[in-house]
Design goal:
heterodimer; A: about 325 residues; alpha/beta; four-stranded antiparallel beta sheet; 12 strands; about 30% helix; globular; disordered C terminus; B: about 350 residues; mainly alpha; three-stranded antiparallel beta sheet; 13 helices; about 60% helix
């Protein structure tokens, strides 16, 4: 097996929060709490979880926008956590991020030409005006936009077109790993499919690796080789896409999968409704992070944190009862 | 440079507001004309034709008395030149004086009828001040001084206000907090006392006064810029630029600043108004520009002392009023053009 492109070990990102205005002790939000995984070259990782589970924070830490509190990120065999200034700058273009909101992610005062070339100019790779023009035209063509739009402004485009511009801007610096932070969740369903197909084509064409962040399992299922399920800052289950759906080994994943709407008439399907809401992960918790909402929780879950076990080859789960995960008996709703 | 459609729309909207465009045009033309004040009102001729040699622009080029057949190395006394023996000898010698043949600096006591201040007449259309200097010339030169002062101050204000406001908004946290407290201390200092104090210790001068005023005046703008940066820095395009490797200063000034221009543009005319007004007030009190500089405030102050000479207070007052009014019209038009809510336009 070849070496992983990106390896993350024990990654933590804590944010300090102040409970009341002054004097009180600072609490921490554990947005990303001890996460480890590896991404192979040309692999697409789907990262799912409900809002507030830390998937976006994880994406930002990996794309070097946030500094991790602890842990190690290895990219292409070199440790990149702790790098600063010029040394860090060298790695930026390899790790790129596509943002969720195509409206706020494009500067309204810049033309498509300037937006697309932001990265190239920052790295000073291409110098002559002619070469810049050619590059910009090539990028627009690559993402399926006509080069005639180069001198238009972002507000003249639809959401899907804007996301294409955003993708072009990202690809301009020849990244090796692209973190897609819910790139389609702000778009219409029909446009979603177009953008997903575009991302897929670009992956083949440019041999990219993706970390595809989404709260939508059906989107992730379509794209990903492997899927990571995240809950309260932890990755609770890691498995190949098909494996995750066939042999779900964590009650949270089970609940998520059961919530996917199926376009089949007259099929009664049990949707697992979880109790309560995601609580903000302030402070340390004892035992399993999911126990409060888990329909399978038992005494052991309250005291012992479940280890990350490999229950099938390549299939990891953080549950004491990974082997017995099944829908709750009669607990669901049809 | 290509203008964004939004900017184009705003410019178009501004040009539809007749009163503002007209005000801007009048101010602009007057200011450009006043830059050549030496050629409009001066006791040095535009052209001296002496011994078949033309001497042009004598206001800017020094010619000694000897050039025109005198005996001194000092500058030629042009007003009396045509009465000197050397000048009258040649037949083709002549001088062309500007429209108003009096400077703002020199008095023509020997030509005056009566004691200064003299009332307006055909020679001094707006009269003379208490030192016998032409009031029209002083108003004209004063216009240039006031607006130049205001414009230089504006540039300084924008530079300081933008840099500090931008850093405060972008960096936030401790820097913002500390700067904000420093600004509070600074704005609590009594401006007038400091002007008097520094004027006394270091001497009054144009540069010094601008510097002191710039130190105090950027504060207002920095508030706007700070809030714009606080608002804009959280947009994802800022983060996108960071991810693409754009460095700090470039993010500030090339990504965020273009989105924060609206308050600067709206702020400009009102800053000019306050600068012109403050300068006049300081000159009136005697703490402004050093003595011979032609200024409106100084004229109004003379009017105070010579209450019977109405032209010393009325004309500067009218000019001051008109200048401020025109500036306010421009400001109002700019504000309306940049206002996203069109219905709020006053008609």
């Amino acid at each position: 097996m070849n070496a992983p492109l990106l390896e993350v070990r024990g990654l933590k990102k804590y944010f300090p929060v102040r409970k009341n205005m002054l004097w009180s002790r600072q609490a921490t939000v554990r947005a990303v709490d001890d996460v480890s995984f590896a991404v192979m070259p040309s692999e697409t990782i789907g990262l799912v979880g409900e809002s507030g589970c830390g998937k976006t924070t994880l994406g930002r830490v990996i794309s070097l926008l946030l500094r991790p509190t602890a842990g190690k990120i290895t990219f292409d065999g070199r440790v990149i956590t702790g790098l600063r200034g010029r040394a860090l700058h060298r790695y930026r273009h390899s790790l790129q991020i596509i943002f969720q909101d195509p409206y706020s992610s494009l500067n309204p005062r810049k033309t498509v030409f300037d937006i697309v070339l932001t990265g190239i100019r920052a790295f000073g790779i291409v110098k002559t005006k002619k070469a810049l023009m050619d590059k910009a035209e090539a990028l627009l063509t690559l993402v399926g936009l006509s080069p005639q739009y180069l001198h238009h402004y972002p507000h003249e485009f639809s959401g899907g077109q804007r996301q294409r511009i955003s993708i072009a801007r990202t690809l301009a610096v020849n990244p090796r790993l692209v973190i897609c932070d819910e790139p389609v969740s702000a778009l219409d369903v029909s446009i979603q499919a177009q953008i997903l197909n575009l991302l897929n084509e670009l992956k083949q064409q440019l041999s990219l690796s993706y970390i595809f962040i989404s709260h939508d399992l059906s989107v992730v299922k379509y794209l990903s080789d492997r899927i990571f399920v995240m809950y309260r800052g932890k990755i609770v289950e890691k498995a190949a896409a098909a494996e995750l759906f066939a042999r779900t080994a964590h009650p949270y994943s089970k609940a998520l999968i059961s919530a996917i709407p199926e376009p089949v008439i007259n099929q009664t399907k049990k949707t697992i409704i979880l109790k309560g809401d995601v609580t903000t992960p302030v402070g340390a918790i004892e035992g399993c992070c999911f126990r409060e909402r888990c329909y399978m929780a038992q005494a052991v879950c309250r005291t012992t944190s479940p280890p990350d076990r490999e229950i099938h080859p390549g299939h990891f789960s953080c549950c004491h009862f990974a082997e017995q995960v099944a829908p709750p008996a009669g607990g669901g709703k049809s | 440079m290509r203008l964004s459609p939004l900017t184009k729309r705003r410019i178009n909207r501004f040009f539809k507001i007749k009163r503002s465009v007209l005000s801007l045009a009048v101010l602009g033309v007057l200011y450009i004309l006043s830059l050549g004040s030496e050629l409009i009102a001066n006791d040095k001729p535009i052209l001296v034709f002496y011994k078949n040699t033309p001497y042009l622009f004598n206001a800017y080029i020094f010619h000694s008395d000897k050039t025109f057949g005198g005996q001194y190395d000092t500058e030629a006394q042009y007003r009396g030149l045509n009465k000197t023996a050397a000048f009258m000898q040649g037949s083709g010698n002549y001088m062309v004086f500007p429209l108003v043949p009096y400077s703002a600096y020199s008095s023509s006591l020997d030509e005056l009828r009566g004691n200064p201040p003299t009332a307006p007449d055909a020679i001094h259309i707006l009269g003379t001040d208490d030192r016998g200097r032409d009031v029209f010339a002083r108003l004209l030169y004063g216009f240039r001084t006031s607006l130049t002062f205001a414009l230089v101050l504006l540039v300084l204000e924008i530079v300081i206000g933008c840099v500090i406001g931008a850093l405060q908004g972008y960096l936030g946290g401790a820097f913002d907090l500390v700067m904000q407290r420093l600004i509070e201390i600074l704005s609590a200092l009594p401006f007038l006392y400091i002007v008097i104090l520094i004027g006394n210790v270091l001497g009054q001068s144009f540069g010094m006064l601008i510097l002191i005023m710039a130190i105090f005046n950027w504060i207002g703008l920095s508030y706007y810029i700070r809030s714009e940066f606080l608002k804009n820095k959280q947009f994802q395009f800022v983060e996108a630029a960071r991810a693409l490797g754009v460095r700090g200063a470039k993010i500030l000034f090339s990504e965020i600043l273009p989105n924060a221009l609206t308050p600067i543009v709206t702020f400009m005319p009102f800053s000019l108004i306050s600068a012109v007004f403050t300068l006049t007030a300081l000159d009136y009190l005697g703490f402004g520009l050093p003595a011979p500089t032609p200024s409106w405030g100084e004229l109004i102050q003379q009017g105070m002392e010579n209450l019977s000479s109405y032209w010393l207070s009325v004309y500067p007052f009218i000019i001051l009023f008109l200048t401020l009014l025109l500036l306010a019209f421009v400001g109002e038009g700019l504000r309306e053009a940049l206002d996203p809510r069109e219905y709020s336009r006053m008609e």
